[in-house]
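Bit of a strange request maybe. I'm writing a small parser for structure token strings and I need a real example to test against, not something I typed by hand. Could someone generate the tokens for this chain?
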Amino acid sequence: MTALFSLLPESVGTIDADSKQTILEQLAERFAGVYGLDPVIVLERIEEREKLGSTGFGRGVAIPHARIGELNRPVAAFLRLSSPVAFDAADGMPVDLVFGLLSPEAAGAAHLHALAAISRMMRDEKLHAALGDAADGEALYALLAGGIDRDAA
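Reply from user aminoacidic:
Good idea to test on real output. This should exercise your parser:
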């Protein structure tokens, strides 16, 4: 989808979650199902990163991310929550948009560039509002694909 990371339509959707842990578990399951990864390893890596500090970005967005050996390039997943959940975000606000990123162990700068691109997209006020209003996963994916294309230009 982009030179920085892959985001497949099946990796985008809306979920019900009542805790940060549930979000991370469902994110790990989504990554595993879509990209053929081990959900236990994905969850372990995401939790390890989360212990270093919350990936709650602010303004209702979290960007959980980790590095994992089974990948050749960064991959992403996007989850909209049916209702906001506390995530220990920097601004103290609950999150309702979760943009996950997994990169190869040795991704170095590629991981940071992908995180920066996701961060820029999630700061876009129009996109942020549109993601909250999108009717379904297909509409979410279309918005994200457009946002990534704009960001790459």
